[in-house]
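Contributing new complexes? Match this layout with 1-O-alpha-D-glucopyranosyl-D-fructose.
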Amino acid sequence: MTTVPTSIAPASRPDGWWRSAVVYQIYPRSFQDSNGDGIGDLPGITSRLDYLAELGVDVLWLSPVYRSPQVDNGYDISDYQDVDPLFGTLDDLDELLAEAHRRGLAVVMDLVVNHTSDQHPWFVESRDPASPKRDWYYWRQARPGHLPGTPGAEPDGSHAAFAPSAWTFDPASGEYYLGIFSPGQPDLNWENPEVRRAVHDMMRWWVARGVDGFRMDVINLISKPAQLTSGKPLEAAASGFEAIANGPRLDEFLAEMNREVGLDALHLLTVGEMPGSTLEVAQRVTDPERHELTMVFTFEHMDLDGAPGNKWSLVPLQLPRLKQNLALWQDGLADTGWNSLYFDNHDQPRAVSRFGDDSPEHRVASAKTLATVLHLHRGTPYVYQGEELGMTNAPLTAIDQYLDVESLNYHALATAGGLSEGDVLASLAAKSRDHARTPVQWDDGAHAGFTTGTPWCAVNPNHTTINAEAARHDPASVFAHFQRLIRLRHENEVVREGRFRLLLPEHDRLWAFTRTLADQVLLVVANCWSEPTEIPIDELPLLDGAALVLGTHDEGSPTVLAPWESRILLLP
Ligand code: TEU
Ligand code: CA
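Output block (do not edit by hand):
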């Protein structure tokens, strides 16, 4: 039996420590396999901690490793307080915590409490209408005038993220339950104080085990719209998360969780994933005076290359929109609250393929420049596994190469809806989550050193040239550039706290901004284009006498940036 270690005293985590930190997200399934079953696991992560310490990151965020039927690769949890045998045991997790802490690395768990798995004992009990747990989930009768279980009898027309309907018929009780992601992910009823208490108890158990914080999955969906909680159907089919996000009791639930679990009292890092959220919500939720969360993940910049509410409907990204959106959040959280900074995670295509240029000629430079721009904004940067190597999207050309429930659901619905196979595959090639889930490329050997077995997901063939072993020994690698950016943040308060100001807002190739703290002014100028671009020096602060702090290229022309070249300059 594992003895639960005492929680780490807040003293070892100074207040606001997360403002100086860089977080590294690990998707355990694809990070490192240790037992040859082709699936990444906890001992595999522990075996790579020296690599992460060498990169220089401060915090590890683990995507879920809890017991789960794996309908959504672990974001469907059937036991919050045990490790799924796929990934190892609680002892393996304790070992990872101890070894990470020994290296000065904090560990943040993924808290998925908007929904459970339909295999969670809470939900299994809830299926019985007479059970005291019936009200732990959203159960509703068939639409009036419709025979339960027949098409169109769902309580309303809401669709789910990974399934045609957000309502699943339960023949045993003749009612429907809500699962806004999939039938395997029933939504918890946070209006019920017993649900909240059970979540708080579980969080305290993890804090006592030594975790340093939580990434909170779709946490702005826990407070559902009033019409749903009052028993009425949602008026319109939830088109995207805007229709159901940021409900009336969100702040109340978050403040209660903070108080009950001691999130601020214990100086824990808390980041709320908030699809369909807004700057106004983030200003409230990250206001330290309100004691809710330390930061949130916005999705606004992730939605700029898709139609509203439909990421599969591709829209060419316009750089001015991207940089102006990040600037909006910089300005909006400059005085109160805090930003997270990310381009990449397990739900998004690879940044260098999406926002950069992953051609052999420009991949390294564009991966470095995207990192430069992101890490020089104000906030806590998040590095997604492989982003530090410039890993790219995978060459997926047929639907049988896709594994993710979201990709497969989209293909089924879109082709049934009349879209051509070619159009659907083009959307998947651009936006599928599968691209983020190919195994980390450790070396140029079999399966990139990820496993000695058969990987659950094919390794990207370009691992022969794009891999950690090569990168760690190459001072010109993307890895080396990430090391320098992380070190720059650790060593310079102007990078951590300096005031942000966007320059050249309408320029469609250059991304330029300053960071100012007292008399120090850093200028970042980046060419986000695959051709040389002239710097309009008459529109930029005095460049004469500026000192290059960190660049992506050897010293070049003072007025022209090479393709995907960026420079961080200290102004005189
Ligand atoms: O993602 C929430 C979410 O908004 C995603 O559905 C995202 O918008 C979409 O995948 C983009 O294509 C969180 C987790 O990060 C995701 O992996 C889970 O599938 C989801 O919640 C349900 O737990
Ligand atoms: Ca394994």
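Reviewers usually confirm one structural detail per submission. For this one: Residues 152 and 545 are 70 Å apart (CA to CA).
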